[in-house]
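Note to self: user wants both folds in one dump. Writing first protein now.
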Amino acid sequence: MNGIVCSIVPYGGLMVPVCRNVLPPDFSIPCNRRLVKAELYDKKNMKKTEVKTGQKYGELTVIAPTGRRGYNGEYWVCVCSCGTVKEIMSFDLRSGRVKSCGQGQHRHRDYTGVRRGDLIGVRKTDKTVDHYGMKRPVWEWRCKCGRVVEKAVYEIAPGKSTCCPECAREKKRETARLNNLKSRVDGTNMTKSQLRGVLEGRLTSRNRSGIRGVSWAKNANKWTARGFKDGKPVHLGYFANIEDAAKARQEFLNKNLIIPDDFK
């Protein structure tokens, strides 16, 4: 008798309705639209075969069942040719949707001599790093400065570090220096904030004298004044009282400080 017979069967601790077609007798799917669609796709595009221990699907070799089921089949423990162990659903194995651990582009490619920024691949090490549950191999890379670093391929992808840590710190310092030069006011070797602080007499948190550029020298037991010229500190001498030190610094500023006309 041809047709579909529905029954209630235990499934994962629950009673689930299962529809079974009499022809063919081995075609059985749960009463769920998503599962029906997947099972029909499975029957149309591939043979109805069961996953068994030892079978190979692409780069994967089936080891054992996990005893855990997904929405469309049982999960099986599989090992990839690169050594990665993953749990994969039986439908994905039989349909050919999954043929490797998913990281083949990082594992099977030889990066020896491959340039990534300032780094050149030297050799693959025996080390691995965990990345979102995947074990990625670690490679040795030689920087243009001659230093050798160990990094996984994903760590030197575009947008990430493409040099050794020492070169990265040097680049960061150089970038900060260039940005500082760009922000300086022409002819003063000071940024706008620094120049505005000098003109307004703004005090720093370490100032104890109440006058910018004037401090107490313990070694001489006198007041001392200093200024800046071409980005370098200039000592203006020692003074017995604070008024003379402040006057000397103000004269130094009037003589050496050039304020552009367009400064605001």
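First done. Writing the second protein, which came from a different request thread.
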Amino acid sequence: MAIEGSVTREKVEKVLDYIELMGGVEGNLPSNKVINRSVQNRFEKTLSLVLSNFSNKSFLSKEVQQTYRSVYGEEVPLSTISTYLSRLVDRGVLGRSGSSFEWRYNVKSVGSLGATH
């Protein structure tokens, strides 16, 4: 993977989001690094947020982004939220309807959370 042009905070965040989305780097960390699994990554936070706040209604990625900001006090690019929601659709956790300009999501099945990697 390479970053073209100048290295900006946004580009680095996208790379880190991609790594996180693909399962993280836990196995590649030196043994003196301890990972506290009680700390959720962005994907896990998004999943938890969707299940606890949107399980009984349809929603837009922008609504998830706004709720994420209010719950966790962190800014997350809309493209990151959209990527996570798309991944959850692929895993069967969410259903999606509408068009690519305004996808509407709904929680499909809580039982499909067994395979999160």
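Dump finished. Worth passing along: The domain at 9-23+39-111 is CATH 1.10.10.10 (Arc Repressor Mutant, subunit A).
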